[in-house]
């Protein structure tokens, strides 16, 4: 909606356009002084009111702009606060992530250290067991070697004794062989004499016994 001042100005312009030009002129016109003055008077009267209304509008506009600026500032402040909070949370999350990674790395290092220590202990135990077993086997080997040596010597001695006995027996038999042969011959002859009533020797034996 246009203001009254703007309407009066338009009426003045229309009035001027409707006026006739002076004879022999294209720039000067003939006006009704009273009608034009009336329009100008009303314009003067309306001007303060319009100025006040515009001042009010301007004031309201300033208030609106100030309110909008305040809201914008508050929004900016809230946004900045949220951004700072998000950044803080991001930093906290990053720190938590770094701490978690550090904890995981420490746990992995400790686990690897435990595994290495256990492996070293197992290797030491294995080497100790191998060394102990080797010592036991070495002692057993010494004992068996000594036993075999002693047994071999005793066996050889025993065999030698048996061989000596065997040789003695055979020698004795060899020495007895002629006498055994002679005795066998005599026994055979005696058997022949006993086929009658006895031999002279047997009679003499019986006489002697009487």
UniProtKB/TrEMBL annotation:
Chain spans, region Disordered: 176-210
Protein name as it appears in the record: ATPase
Keywords, sorted A to Z: Coiled coil
Lineage of the species this protein comes from: Bacteria, Bacillati, Bacillota, Clostridia, Lachnospirales
Coiled coil: 90-121
Domain of life assignment: Bacteria
Residue ranges, compositional bias (Acidic residues): 201-210
């Amino acid at each position: 909606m246009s203001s009254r001042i703007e309407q009066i100005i338009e009426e003045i312009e229309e009035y001027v356009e409707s006026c006739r030009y002076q004879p022999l002129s294209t720039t000067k016109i003939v006006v009704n002084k009273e009608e034009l003055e009336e329009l100008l008077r009303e314009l003067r009267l309306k001007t303060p009111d319009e100025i006040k209304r515009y001042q009010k509008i301007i004031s309201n506009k300033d208030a609106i702009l100030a309110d909008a600026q305040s809201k914008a500032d508050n929004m900016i402040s809230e946004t900045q606060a949220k951004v700072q909070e998000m950044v803080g949370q991001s930093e906290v999350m990053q720190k938590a992530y770094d701490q978690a990674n550090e904890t995981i790395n420490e746990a992995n290092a400790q686990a690897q250290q435990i595994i290495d220590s256990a492996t070293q202990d197992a290797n030491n135990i294995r080497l100790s067991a191998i060394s102990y077993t080797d010592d036991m086997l070495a002692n057993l080997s010494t004992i068996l070697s000594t036993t075999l040596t002693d047994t071999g010597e005793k066996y050889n001695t025993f065999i030698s004794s048996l061989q000596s006995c065997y040789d003695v027996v055979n020698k004795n038999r060899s020495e007895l062989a002629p006498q055994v042969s002679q005795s066998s011959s005599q026994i055979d002859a005696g058997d022949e004499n006993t086929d009658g009533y006895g031999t002279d020797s047997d009679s003499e034996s019986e006489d002697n016994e009487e």
